[in-house]
Amino acid sequence: MAGEVSWNNLPSVILNEVFSYLSHNDKVRASSTCKNWRLALSHPRCWRKVHFVIKPSDKSNNIERTRYLVDFAARKLHHASVTFDSMDVVCVQETSNVVESLSENSNLRRLFFKPSNCSLVCPGEQDDWPKYVERHFGKPLISAVKKSHHLEMLSLGCLEELVSSHAKPLLENIAHKHGSSITVLGLASIKDYPDDYFITDLNITLLKPLKHLQILSLDYCHVNDNLLYILSDSCRLTRLVVHVHGIMEEHPGTTEAAWTTLTRNLPNCGLRLTLIHSYDGVDVLHSKILKRAMPLTHLKVFFCEKLNVEAVNQLSFYS
């Protein structure tokens, strides 16, 4: 019958509304139904939020699905999260393809990495891994930050290689372009070898323009009174996450006065302190790290080989 409406020729505005209720996998299946549906699913509205999952199990189908999502959505989406096996070379390569595609997306607002491990196992010889990370992760990430019109959230997933070599240029570009929009910034790392690692030369004064920052994660090596005063005066922080690894002798620590200022100016801010492989940190937890004025809400200790009883006793007297 002339003019009859069926599922394969519904107006795209109706199809887009229907597709908005589907999961990513169902959208992929729907796109193979007919040409009209595939064209409708190419609309950016259908791919505003995508969670890429790249794991070794069922690797061929998993990677094929990821590549399809990259081709279909990476340059259109607003929110992206990438869960991947960072100890599998093929998964790391596919993740780098996702990052490189996202680098061309001006609509990107949120990006979260969720690796299986704190390190990346890259193709080639281990001595060449830093160059691979620079080329396939670092530069595309910086390009993505520059390209984005309105970046709101970024987390590097505690990946040591990314944080150590690219936290500085990423923060520089975020401060320059996204000071009024960024609300979540994850720059903390997890170190495999806390007694031997590279310390990023992070310019914490670049946090000043981030007026709407609500959640920040950093390594303890960057935490000092200057940082606390900057945060107290500059942003709307509700959560500060600090990862403690090795303790450098020259690290100045923090003072009660600085923490008092932060808690007074940011009464809703909570501190989450995590010690990871921190054999030195657990020894001086009570004497150098903990302060009564800290707005401490969480204290976690992982793989530190011992319990600091004095620190536990000290915490029991804090209100």
Secondary-structure map with pairings?
Blueprint: H1 12-19, H2 24-31, H3 35-41, E1 49-54, H4 59-73, E2 79-84, H5 89-102, E3 110-115, H6 129-147, E4 153-155, H7 160-177, E5 184-186, E6 215-219, H8 225-234, E7 239-244, H9 256-265, E8 270-276, H10 279-283, H11 285-289, E9 296-302, H12 309-316
Parallel strand pairs: 1-2, 2-3, 3-4, 4-5, 5-6, 6-7, 7-8, 8-9
Tell me what you see in this structure.
This protein has helices at 12-19, 24-31, 35-41, 59-73, 89-102, 129-147, 160-177, 225-234, 256-265, 279-283, 285-289, 309-316; strands spanning 49-54, 79-84, 110-115, 153-155, 184-186, 215-219, 239-244, 270-276, 296-302. It has two domains: 9-46, Monooxygenase; 49-317, Leucine-rich repeat, LRR (right-handed beta-alpha superhelix) (Alpha-Beta Horseshoe), CATH 3.80.10. A nine-stranded parallel beta sheet has the order 1-2-3-4-5-6-7-8-9. The longest helix has 19 residues, at 129-147. The model has no long low-confidence stretch (mean pLDDT 88). It is elongated, with a radius of gyration of 23 Å. The chain is an alpha/beta fold.
